[in-house]
Design brief:
The complex is a heterodimer of chains A (423) and B (148).
Chain A (H helix, E strand, L loop, with lengths): L1 H7 L45 E4 L6 H7 L5 E4 L2 E3 L3 E3 L6 E4 L5 E4 L6 E5 L4 E4 L2 E3 L4 E6 L2 E6 L2 E3 L4 E6 L2 E6 L2 E3 L4 E6 L6 E4 L2 E3 L3 E6 L5 E4 L2 E3 L3 E6 L12 E4 L2 E3 L18 E6 L5 E3 L2 E3 L4 E6 L1 E2 L3 E2 L5 E3 L2 E3 L4 E5 L8 E3 L6 E2 L14 H15 L41
Parallel strand pairs in A: 1-2, 2-5, 3-6, 4-7, 5-8, 6-9, 7-10, 8-11, 9-12, 10-13, 11-14, 12-15, 13-16, 14-17, 15-18, 16-19, 17-20, 18-21, 19-22, 20-23, 21-24, 22-25, 23-26, 24-27, 25-28, 26-31, 27-32, 28-33, 31-34, 33-35
Antiparallel strand pairs in A: 29-30
Chain B lengths: L2 H4 L15 H22 L5 H17 L4 H30 L4 H4 L2 H26 L2 H9 L2
The chains are: A mainly beta (423), B mainly alpha (148).
Chain lengths: 423, 148
């Protein structure tokens, strides 16, 4: 998918016309536009299963895959310390939990040969307390499922994505870490509404920390750390996945720092987002609220147009109460052309492009300079001249800082997430 | 050139020893505003947007109003716009040059060269139009030089 996206993402340009004069807040959006709300209510703790069997690896089974194949729905596959040179696939056992007894010591190793550490197409599968490294596609990958959860996961130096949900709904990534990926550390793509949450995670040394193509609706990315990637948080619209444009995601309470890492690996379009903390690329009705954003070479928070087969202008995005400092070009930015209704309210920011976002005025609504940065960096990427590192040799995670799952050996398996109205 | 015009054509002579008609004055104000806005837009990465606007607008207004004729005002205004456009890619790259540890990886690429060429082509338009205004039609002079 990565290469297809890149092939089609041929140009980011300045087609179209911008709206009229935009001031700091034009009343165009209250942040709740679109088909679905961006945020979501607290769903409560997933309920434990009462009737399940535990399959131990390596005591009962030599491989994780053998344990998975023997398991029934709701069972727990409990994996002891060791390096497991295998690629696990869960396609026929819904509500399965695969858990490591020690996050840093239960390692799935792709040896730069296998594709995905764990590949899931069954519903409500939970992955907990595991590490995945050196896979030629992804670390932990759910696709086309209803119900998923990844908790206390570490994914590093896998080629494409670290922790990845595609075309899936009702999910949660939490207490996880991803580094050294050529697309993004965490990815939620092609879902509307997603009914998903990414919380208390950390991404660094990736092309992009969080990428969310055409993903929105009850989708929250919150309370997480995104730093030292090429680009930080990038909700984006592309024609190469279903349901464009991207709309209705809530980015809240994150710490986004110094995403200017030219040595991060990159194979898709990470460099196009280089040097920007939060970059809404052709998205609509998103809420960017209460984030702390620091030290970006280009922009702290930017909303920009995106051209794929169609032009996607940023529209009706709500950027409020963020604390943005230390940006090279501007703390807040709105590219031209833009679709109107983008509201920048009560942000603690010193500079902006256009000036209207911090109290000045604008002639075009958005600023062509912002779009020019995106175009120039995308062209450099497309010409194959952008700086990048090697995913195979990206820095290893700070293992000692990673939170361990409490009671990993004794806690019962739990459902992936609580559904709305699920008592 | 009239006697009044001659009095203002050299050096930093008194600005208001001559006056322009309303249309020429409007052109001076218009160019001053455009150059001021462009200057503010250009330097916004480094702050000082308003001072740049002020210096650009007032400076341009002063320089243009000193011009002896409407034609000279228009030509100088277009030259000013062209000059600002021409430095745009350099100012654009400055931010990267001053803030990244290995800036050559970011600014010495084909895309950067392309950016320079495209913007210089755009800048050439007002420059050529200004030159045409200042020096008269190209074709007769060309023919004269070619001896036809």
């Amino acid at each position: 998918m990565t290469y297809r996206r890149r092939e089609v993402l041929r140009a980011v340009g300045t087609v179209g016309v911008g709206g009229g004069i935009t001031y700091g807040y034009d009343g165009g959006s209250d942040g709740t536009g679109g088909d679905y709300p961006a945020g979501q209510p607290d769903r409560g703790t997933p309920r434990p299963y009462e009737d399940y069997a535990t399959h131990r690896v390596p005591e009962d089974y030599e491989t994780i895959q053998a344990a998975v194949d023997a398991a029934s729905p709701r069972d727990l596959v409990l994996v002891g310390p060791g390096v497991y040179n295998e690629a696990v696939s869960v396609q026929e056992t819904p509500r399965l939990t695969i858990r490591g007894t020690s996050r840093n010591d239960v390692v799935l190793d792709g040896e730069f040969e296998r594709e995905d550490a764990v590949f899931v197409t069954a519903d409500d599968v939970v992955l907990e307390n595991l590490t995945a490294r050196h896979y030629t596609r992804n670390g932990f990958f759910w696709t086309s499922v209803a119900g998923y959860r990844g908790s206390y996961l570490t994914a590093y130096n896998n080629r494409l994505y670290g922790v990845y949900a595609f075309d899936s709904v009702h999910g949660r990534f939490e207490h996880s870490y991803a580094s050294g990926h050529t697309d993004s550390g965490f990815y939620v793509g092609q879902c509307e509404p997603c009914h998903a949450m990414v919380t208390n995670v950390r991404a660094e040394h990736n092309a992009i920390g969080y990428s969310g193509t055409n993903a929105g609706g009850y989708l929250t990315v919150r309370d997480s750390v995104w730093r030292h990637n090429m680009g930080g948080i990038v909700p984006n619209s592309l024609d190469t996945e279903a349901n464009p444009p991207q709309a209705n995601a809530r980015i809240e309470g994150n710490r986004v720092e110094a995403n200017n890492n030219a040595d991060a690996p990159d194979s898709a379009f990470g460099y196009a987002a280089f040097g920007t903390g939060i970059n809404v690329a052709g998205g609509q009705d998103n809420e960017i609220v209460g984030n702390t954003v620091r030290d970006h070479v280009n922009f702290g928070i930017a909303t920009v147009p995106m051209i794929d087969q169609n032009l996607y202008e940023p529209r009706d995005n709500y950027v409020a109460e963020n604390d943005v400092r230390g940006s090279g070009r501007a703390d807040l930015a709105l590219g031209w052309p833009q679709g109107g209704g983008n509201a920048f309210v009560d942000n603690d920011a010193a500079t902006s492009r256009p000036a209207s976002l911090t109290g000045g005025f604008s002639l075009l609504g958005g600023d062509p300079w912002v779009t020019m940065v995106l175009i120039e960096q995308f062209l450099q990427l497309d010409f194959g001249e952008s700086p990048r590192g090697d995913w195979r040799s990206a820095p290893e995670p700070p293992f000692e800082e990673l939170e361990r799952m409490p009671d990993a050996e004794t806690a019962p398996p739990r459902e992936a997430v609580r559904r709305p109205n699920d008592d | 050139m009239t006697e009044r015009d001659e009095g203002t054509a050299d050096g930093f002579g008194p600005l208001f020893e001559h006056t322009h008609d309303a249309l020429t004055t409007a052109a001076v104000v218009g160019f001053a505003a455009v150059v001021g806005l462009l200057a503010g837009w250009l330097v916004a990465d480094f702050g000082g947007r308003f001072p740049a606007f002020l210096v650009g607008a007032v400076g341009t207004g002063y320089l243009l109003y000193r011009q002896p004729t409407r034609r000279a005002v228009l030509a100088a205004g277009l030259y000013s716009v062209a000059a600002l456009l021409a430095v745009t890619p350099i100012v654009y790259e400055l931010q990267v040059l001053v803030s990244l540890p290995a800036p050559q990886r970011h600014v010495l690429a084909t895309s950067d060269l392309l950016l320079v060429v495209v913007i210089w082509v755009v800048a050439a338009v007002p420059a050529v139009v200004g030159y045409r205004l200042a020096s008269g039609p190209f074709v007769p002079r060309l023919r004269e030089r070619l001896g036809r």
